[in-house]
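The instructor's notes for this session suggest beginning with a concrete chain rather than abstract definitions. Hand out the sequence below and ask the class to guess, before any prediction is shown, which regions might be ordered.
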Amino acid sequence: MALDWKYNNEIFTEEMIGDNYGFVYIITNIQTNQKYIGKKFFYSTKTRQVKGKKKREKVFSDWKSYYGSNQTLKDDIVLLGKENFKREIIHLCLSKGECNYMEAYEQFTSDVLRKPTEYYNHWI
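After discussion, reveal the predicted structure:
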């Protein structure tokens, strides 16, 4: 199903997260083959007040329903429908730093800024 995240051609589930902090992904427009390379973290830290003290807790992010931060990509998803996009995890990362590095690595090696008709990425 096009709505699921795939990793190594398998549907990626919450049980597969393990010790990973996040992932680097490619979202592909099936109709035009235009792509978007980005990263997403599995968790975020929320702060809440407990008995007068601030307490930080780790909570799941919106990674399951996430479709990127690029506005042109989001507009195309609304226009064409989620079923016309493929979401693939290309790297699972153990740390925030690894996610940042692998995202930049993929964007630079794919030359996303010089190929505006092939990639939704407008900046790195």
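Then share the key points. The radius of gyration is 16 Å. The mean pLDDT is 93.
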